[in-house]
């Protein structure tokens, strides 16, 4: 059905041409499921966009052949390509909120491909849209049809993207990182949905992901890319169990494992952070209009964090993890209960209003690019906490910023660069360095590695572990990736609907859990047997 031969993609937007994909070859039959894996910048998405006809920049050169049912796509006219886009070949993008039109209702957006490709009456379009929403396993599809994207959860928006992609029953579905930043239960649901579409409609799926565990669960064949080249491809189990290339071996070795025999440090005697019966919520639109009550998000959270301990916090989206993090760092001041940081290290000066009393708690956010000022250099950004606290000369601030860059594994020359000039992994290192500039007692890492590919993720986890050891940091590590939590954390808390339902060592939680919800999370992550 599909054959890609010797595909090369070259950009001409710099002083000299830059090739981003070299001699890419791929064939797919009806009902195939093929995964493409590799680090950021390896050429995965570029290859997929070329297949979908979405690379049409004037400063780009494409050579080779892309044959879909014998038709050449690389050189066909724009009008011919439009006849296939959305009808025969569809794509699901990584971030649904930026892919969906915020001012159009869901039904209108799902029907768009029908309006372009098929002569359907208004009633037929409605019926097909409801069918697609139902196929995407959205609850109450008739209700969703009349809603806007902002009224849906992240998982529901991703299902809408799938519904819009399958409404014309395409022969090939390209899924570009469709589960990134989704929690494990939603990830599992999306994977099962893709399997169902493949099984029932014989839709071929090209699945692009940096999550190698998901690729192994979903795909039959896998293509491994590095620096624009295909370095290895074959049967997914054969490649995972018997990789031939060193790069593939490194990728697979970087997958966090859940070894039940992994040694653990004893729990520290001292406590650096404590929370007692913390309750917090948000005012809904109805509450503002005095027609409804505030929504309670945290329902009496109590826990302690030991000195030098790494505590994992796991739960589905919306359970209250990030709200708890905001309470701890002082970004949310309207809460009930007690939060106390009994540290004492750090720069001179009192904590900011609303910050955990006596100590310092700092945060590393999920998206480093939106956390850094794009108009300032890295050095200026790192010096900002020192300027705010006062007591440091310009030379001292610069010296400390350069020392921090080296501490987080970056060279001093990075101080002169802007965030846009750094890779995702480098930006996350800068964010960690920024959080550490005021020498905090507690570091809250909120999904700090969820959007990174597996090798960069492994580097950031190793960095956090090293910094914790060197600085005696206590870390609250919030994540939906249960494998990462098992590898990094000394203790784990499971959160559901604003409450801690279970806590213990990783071995206790993963292999001898007591709460059924913990079992559901582990099963969704493919860890029901502790694998």
How would you sum up this structure in a few lines?
The protein has 531 residues and is α/β, with parallel strands linked by helices. The protein has 22 helices and 19 strands.
Tell me what you see in this structure:
The protein has 531 residues and is α/β, with parallel strands linked by helices. It is built from 22 helices and 19 strands. The strands form 4 sheets. A 6-stranded mixed β-sheet has the order 6-7-8-3-9-10, with helices on both faces. It has a 6-stranded mixed β-sheet with strand order 15-16-17-13-18-19, sandwiched between helices. Helix 6 packs across helix 8 (154-166) and helix 9 crosses helix 22. It is globular and about 70 Å long.
Mean pLDDT: 87
Tell me the overall shape: globular
Strand content: 15-25%
Question: How helix-rich are the residues, as a percent range?
Answer: 25-40%
The first-to-last residue Cα distance is: 36 Å
Low-pLDDT regions: 346-358
Widest beta sheet: strand line-up: 6-7-8-3-9-10
* Rg of Cα set: 25 Å
Let me know the largest β-sheet. Answer: 6 strands, mixed
Helical run tally:
22
Total DSSP E strands:
19
Secondary structure class reads alpha/beta
Set down the secondary structure blueprint.
Elements lengths: L1 E10 L6 E11 L4 E5 L6 H8 L8 E9 L2 E2 L5 H7 L4 E4 L3 H4 L6 H5 L1 H6 L4 H14 L5 H5 L8 H13 L5 E5 L7 H18 L2 E5 L3 H7 L2 E6 L2 E7 H6 L4 H8 L17 E12 L2 H4 L6 E12 L3 E5 L6 H9 L5 E7 L19 E4 L3 H4 L6 H12 L4 H14 L16 H13 L5 E5 L7 H18 L2 E5 L3 H7 L2 E6 L2 E6 L1 H6 L4 H9 L7
List keywords for this structure.
6-stranded mixed sheet; 22 helices; alpha/beta; 24% strand; 37% helix
């Amino acid at each position: 059905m599909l054959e890609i031969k010797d595909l090369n993609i070259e950009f001409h937007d710099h002083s000299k041409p830059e090739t981003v994909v070299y001699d890419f070859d791929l064939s797919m039959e009806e009902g195939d499921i093929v995964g493409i894996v590799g680090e950021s910048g390896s050429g995965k998405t570029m290859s997929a966009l070329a297949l979908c006809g979405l690379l049409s920049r004037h400063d780009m050169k494409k050579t080779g052949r892309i044959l879909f049912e014998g038709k050449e796509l690389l050189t066909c006219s724009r009008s011919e390509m439009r006849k296939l886009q959305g009808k025969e070949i569809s794509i699901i993008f990584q971030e649904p909120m930026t892919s969906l039109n915020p001012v159009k209702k869901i039904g209108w957006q799902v029907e768009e491909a029908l309006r372009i490709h098929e002569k359907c009456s208004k009633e037929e379009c409605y019926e097909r849209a409801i069918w697609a929403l139902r196929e995407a396993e959205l609850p109450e599809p008739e209700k969703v049809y009349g809603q806007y994207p902002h009224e849906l959860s992240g998982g529901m928006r991703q299902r809408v993207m799938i519904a819009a992609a399958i409404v014309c029953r395409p022969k090939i579905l390209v899924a570009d990182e469709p589960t990134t930043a989704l929690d494990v239960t939603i990830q599992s649901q999306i994977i099962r949905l893709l399997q169902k579409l493949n099984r029932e409609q014989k839709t071929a799926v090209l699945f692009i992901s940096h999550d190698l565990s998901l690729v192994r669960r979903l795909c039959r064949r896998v293509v491994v890319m590095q620096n624009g080249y295909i370095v290895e491809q074959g049967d997914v189990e054969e490649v995972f169990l018997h990789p031939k290339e060193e790069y593939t071996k490194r990728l697979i070795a970087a997958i966090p494992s859940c070894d039940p025999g992994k040694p653990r440090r004893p729990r520290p005697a001292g406590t650096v952070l404590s929370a007692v019966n913390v309750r917090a919520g948000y005012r809904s639109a109805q509450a503002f209009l005095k027609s409804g009550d505030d929504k309670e998000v945290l329902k009496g959270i109590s826990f302690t964090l030991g000195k030098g301990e790494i505590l994992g916090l796991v739960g589905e989206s919306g359970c209250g993890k990030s709200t708890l993090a905001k309470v701890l760092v002082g970004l949310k001041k309207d809460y009930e209960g007690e939060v106390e940081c009994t540290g004492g290290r750090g720069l001179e000066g009192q904590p900011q209003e609303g910050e955990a009393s006596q100590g310092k708690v700092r945060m590393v956010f999920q998206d480093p690019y939106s956390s850094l000022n794009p108009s300032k250099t890295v050095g200026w950004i790192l010096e900002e906490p020192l300027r705010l606290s006062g007591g440091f000369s310009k030379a001292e601030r610069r010296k400390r910023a350069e020392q921090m860059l080296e501490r987080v594994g970056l060279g001093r020359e990075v101080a002169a660069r802007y965030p846009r000039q750094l890779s995702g992994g480098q930006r996350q290192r800068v964010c960690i360095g920024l959080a550490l500039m005021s020498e905090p007692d507690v570091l809250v890492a909120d999904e700090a590695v969820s959007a990174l590919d597996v090798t960069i993720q492994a580097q950031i986890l190793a960095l956090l572990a090293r910094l914790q050891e060197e600085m005696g940091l206590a870390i609250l590590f919030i994540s939906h990736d249960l494998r990462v939590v098992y590898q990094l954390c000394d203790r784990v808390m499971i959160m559901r609907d604003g409450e801690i339902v279970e806590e213990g060592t990783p071995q206790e939680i993963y292999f001898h859990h007591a709460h059924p919800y913990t079992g559901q999370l582990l099963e969704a992550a493919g860890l029901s047997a502790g694998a």
